[in-house]
Amino acid sequence: MSDLPIALVSDHAGFALKTSLKEALVERGLPVLDLGPDRPDPVDYPDMADRLAAAMKAGQAERGVVICGTGIGISIAVNRHPGIRAALCHDVSSARLAREHNNANVLALGARLIGQSVAQDCLITFLDTAFAGGRHADRVAKLDRAGA
Ligand code: RB5
To answer: What is the 3-state secondary structure (H, E, C) of 70-113?
Structure first.
C-alpha cells in the first residue's frame, strides 16, 4: 500500500461510523484524509461521493472509504467517476475478494446495516489485501473501458 492517506467521507447516516473508523486507523498509525462532514447534520451522499472522487483524481489518496446509511447510494454515486472501483461490503470475505479480484480502490459501507466491529474488520482486510492480478487484470481493465 502507498504512503498516501486513506480518504474518508460519509453522509449524516454514516457520520458516527466514519468517526470510529478514523479513530481505528489513527490508532494503527495509518494516515487519514477526512473529507467530511465534520458534524452529523444532513448532507447529500452524492456530494460527499463527488468530494472523495475529486481527491482521488487529484492524487491525494489511492484508497477511500464511503459510508451512508445503506452504503448503496454513496457507492452508486462514487462508481460513476472514472477510475473509481467501489465495492459495497458487509463482511470480511467480500472486502478481501473486492481487493483480490476487483482491485477495488474504494470500500463502501452501510452504517445502518453493519456493526462497528465488522466494519472495522472489513476496512483492515480491505487495506491489507493485495490485488491478485493474473486472470483478473484483463477483467478489471475492461471496467474502465465500459461506456468509453
Ligand atoms: C439517508 O437517510 C439515506 O438515504 C442514505 O444514508 C443512504 O442510505 C442512501 O443510500
So the answer is: CCHHHHHHHHCCCCCCEEECCCHHHHHHHHHCCCCCEEEEECCC
Instruction: Identify residue 118 by its one-letter amino acid code.
Output: V
Q: What would the pLDDT profile of 22-48 be if each residue is shown by its tens digit?
A: 999 999 999 999 999 999 999 999 999
Give Cα 6 to chain centroid, integer Å: 9
SS3 50: helix
Does the Cβ of 69 fall within 6 Å of ligand 1? yes
Query: How remote is the CA of residue 69 from the centroid of ligand 1, in Å?
Result: 5
Backbone phi, then psi, for 121, in 5-degree steps? -60, -40
Fold of 6-146: Ribose 5-phosphate Isomerase B; Chain: A, (3.40.1400)
For residue 56, the CA-to-ligand 1 centroid distance in Å is: 23
Number of CB atoms found within 10 A of residue 139's CB: 11
Task: List the one residue out of 112, 114, 14, 5 whose CA is nearest residue 66.
Answer: 14
